[in-house]
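Exercise (ungraded).
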Amino acid sequence: MTRVWAIYSLAKADLLERTRRYQYVATIAVTLLVGTLLVPARSAGYETFLIDGYRGIYNSAWIGATFAILAAMLLSLFGFYNIKSAVERDRTTRVGEIVAATSVARFDYALGKALSNFLVLGSMAAILFVTAIVMQFVRGESPAIDLGQIAAPFALVILPLIAMVSAIALLFEMIPWLRGGLGNVVYFFLFMWYMIWSFQAEMPHVPWWRDLLGGNLVMRQIWTALLHVDPRAKLNSVDIGAVGERAHHLFIFHGFVWTGADVIERSMWFVVALGIVTVAALLFDRFAKPARSAENAGRNAVVARWQSATAGFSRPVIDALFSSDFGAIVLAELRLLVRGLSVWWYAVAAGLWIFQLFADAKGQSIAVGLAWIWPLLQWSQLGTREAVCATEQFIYPTLHPIRRQFFAQWLAGVLLALTTAGGSLVHWAIAGNFGGIEGILAGAVFVPTLAIACGALSGTTRLFEIAYLTLWYVGPLNRTPFDFTQGAYAPGFTLASVVLFAMAVTARKIRLSLA
Amino acid sequence: MELQIDALNKRYGALHAVRDFTLRLEPGILGLLGPNGAGKSTLMRMLATVTKPTSGTIRFNGSDAGKSPDALRRTLGYLPQDFGIYPHLSAVEFLEYIGALKGIPRRALRNRIATLLEVLNLTQAGSRALGGFSGGMRQRVGIAQALLNDPRLLIVDEPTAGLDPEERVRLRTLLREMAGDRIIVFSTHICSDVESVATRVAIVNHGALVAQGHPSELARGCASLEDAYLRIVAGARAAA
């Protein structure tokens, strides 16, 4: 009984601490907004879910099904980044040291934290559930609300999914190298891989372990219903988030038929989640400060030797360039950005620089895209370092903290972008293609501006990491209009940079006034 | 009841934070004195089972705390030097949370929290968010969480830091009253705090125990315990 009480108290305290932060209110507001956008009006100019031009009329069965698929994607990706701080909070607030001295078992601690993760994601799912009901009423295509048809996909698809996401987030927090920004990047690629792998599975017999997101489970039911309406419908022609499209035909989806096997298979994910929590508990270090490994010490010694060897060469040059007072701050910010990077980091950056130089015009997006994913964790420090390192009390009272330090930090980020994409700049200059140069310049301003805006607004590195990774994936990697390395889209990204910078300055001003 | 520390060592890479530390503790108050970076906090973290020693053992009533820490943890109260709070929880909610982790039944916990808030002069602030607390008030919440389970072994690292003179006197009185059948280990830089409550003093320098005894024994031949402490530390430095 005492153990249950401990787990309950752990989850409760963690949940209260999270839900009372303004970030949670912002999360709920965004979830509410997303929920309303998932059910667009006929005149909205976009559709969220189309199969070969078909959409179900907005009855409870269709809204429940599509909400389940779309909510699964949102909660498993963005939800992960939202909750991956349960243990980190105990580290940063230093409550962990008090917890470590209590008799609470590792498993109980891990389970309490996973439960808190689950409840936070569950609250987001609950908001989406209520929004689904409201939006069916608002759109008015089918007035009869069937709560069971909305609730069933939520229960069968979303609950096992968020149990898994909660457990994985906890596991990432227990593994030192996955704890920080690198873990965020790893999860993004893991998620993308799993989602593609899952949707590539042969229907209708997709094994349960290949369908965590429940997409195949839901699609199977929708396809069966659609084939009754139009046996020639191309079932593989699925559009999720189709901008500029309209449904050509509407059909009535009558709802789900769940079998006992479906329920058992989805329930298996709870067992897997519990297994992951157990592994996380075994890896939990009870906040013991880890000693620096000999391997790291060795690597740092190499970096130190390299830095001392190049110091004499680089300093006079850099000092001449940055001899002014403001220049010195920019230089200091630049040093902070790249401090502690290994020789290998520079070696890869140099390799990508050469790749840009020799890539053809078509390959430039990929080459610059790769060069600009490499410093992701450096840019994510922009606007957050003061909060993360608790140096606000030293920096905020300095002379003109925005005009000098904040601006210098942003400029250091821009310089890092220009340096890492230098190969492409040289490539376009040799080719005499000023559009290419314009694209790199606009991108080099846009990326650090996005970073500093996300950092200043959220106070954490995660918002930028997920926003940028998503944009990077749909932009340079897939060469869509979101490609911020293309000259053709430079005006749009320049305008976005101006807006983002204004937001960043406003956010920093608010923090200064509250400090 | 006894706490036996045998040949305890802690290394962080090249840094030897605690060296061959041996001491036997019985009920009473041990004041731990030493310069900044002497290894006091590392030693206390090991006694509190937060950090594992590199070598050596800590035995509580004969049980090896390294192998089975739960026996010690069940009866431990620990106040770290640099601890945090959840800023959005109230003092009562925070103490309920820590109390549950310590395995205190709900009803007993509520009574205990009410008592401690009164003793530590926090009753009026009990339902306020901790984020708005002053440094001294946070420190008192830290002390309250350490005392929640009525610990037999109390380890407090710089408990008087941030407290005003009145609260310091109140805490010293509380420690003296509690001392009877408990082992209390507390570290501080303020010699007068040690002099007024400690039944025994241990002086640590560069991770090693350099002197120990009753405060009056150590201060013999000196103007005060502070003079004795300065002389002992200077002697240890010269010898090193």
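Further reading is listed at the end of the chapter. For now, observe: The first helix of chain B runs from residue 40 to 47. Residues 84-150 of chain B form one domain.
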